[in-house]
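Methods — Computational structure assignment.
A single polypeptide chain was analysed. Its primary sequence is given first, followed by the predicted tertiary structure written as structure tokens.
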Amino acid sequence: MDDILNRPIVLVLNRNWQAINVRTPQQAFVQMATDVVTALNIDGENRVPAHWAEWIKLPVRENDYSVRTPSGPIRVPAVIVLSRFAKVPKRRPKFSARAIWARDGGQCQYTGANLRPSEGNIDHVLPRSRGGKTSWENCVLASKDVNSRKADRLPEEVGLRLLKPPTAPRELPSTLFIRNVNGIAAWRHFLVE
């Protein structure tokens, strides 16, 4: 059976109530018990902060996650608020073929042609056979026919030029990377979707 204590189902807000992270109930309970965070008791449009001593006395509602303890069930908070942290951390998207596609806007970086998914793939500007790395700065989206023609050569060796040098995407607020994959209703108030 799925261990609820170790599933990332608790949304973390900074003290300005901006979503910045996701935690497990286990991590949330530790932070609540040490007064690092307060939990939000969310009922419809009402959002009331509750400290640990108050939280453990709240009844478990029908649609809430809960954990059993010797003292009885304790509701898992859907959202917690950090007491002292105000920043929104930034991070870069994870490197992947999908992220390269997004960075390059679905456009071949040699011809400028707009590509459908079946028409493009990732090209190593400096081929791996020549020591090229799989990195933001060495990978671009290319049409399959251009990539095949280039093969393990440098672009200039086959008469190609990049439209622009590949770079790592800029860092974005961490809020943009949080997804409500479990469909937790209480999160919808705090996430950009």
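Note: The chain has a mean pLDDT of 93.
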